[in-house]
Amino acid sequence: MSQSFGCLQWPGSGRMVLRAGTASRKFRQGITVDFQVAARDSGEVIVIDASGRLTLGAGGTKLRDLLHVFVSKGRKKFALNLAEVTLIDSFGIGELVRSHAIVRTRGGELILFRVNKKVHDLLEITRLHMLFEIHADEHTALGKLRERG
Fold it and tell me: What are φ and ψ of residue 126, in 5° steps?
């Protein structure tokens, strides 16, 4: 493994993961408590798989940090998989909005897919479903981003 902008990167795999301390151990054991993100390159789109709790104190800035890495390298299209995100609090809502702003400021797009019912309900209550484009599956999300050129 080589270190790259605070991310673990597996050479040749196109996969970057941000992990920290005990959260990594729990993540490897399949017990995701803290927030984790893993990115994979899908051509012109970066797919980010998120899991755990996007809450204050649970490593919530990892998403924003990862997006900073990619936008600084000129990447503009991101699809965020929220299927394994179990909880989002007000801090997490702020992180989603800040992440969206980081990408939009650089002329990019961030869309969500596989949003579970609990998180989708929260996005509706906070009216953020109007800010984020949300798709049911990865194939549809990637297709929408790719057709926009």
Answer: -85, 0
b/e per residue, 80-117, with b = 16+ CB within 10 A? Answer: bbbeebbebbeebbebbeebbebbeeeebbbbbbbbee
CATH of residue 110: 3.30.750.24
| DSSP code for 97 | H
φ and ψ at residue 11, rounded to 5 degrees: -55, 135
Each residue of 49-74: pLDDT tens digit?
Answer: 999 999 887 666 899 999 999 999 99
Q: Which two tokens stand for residue 92?
A: 């997490």
Confidence (pTM): 0.78
Number of domains in the chain: 1
pLDDT one-digit tens code per residue, 102-126: 999 999 999 999 999 999 999 999 9
φ and ψ at residue 9, rounded to 5 degrees:
-130, 130
Domain that holds residue 19: 2-147
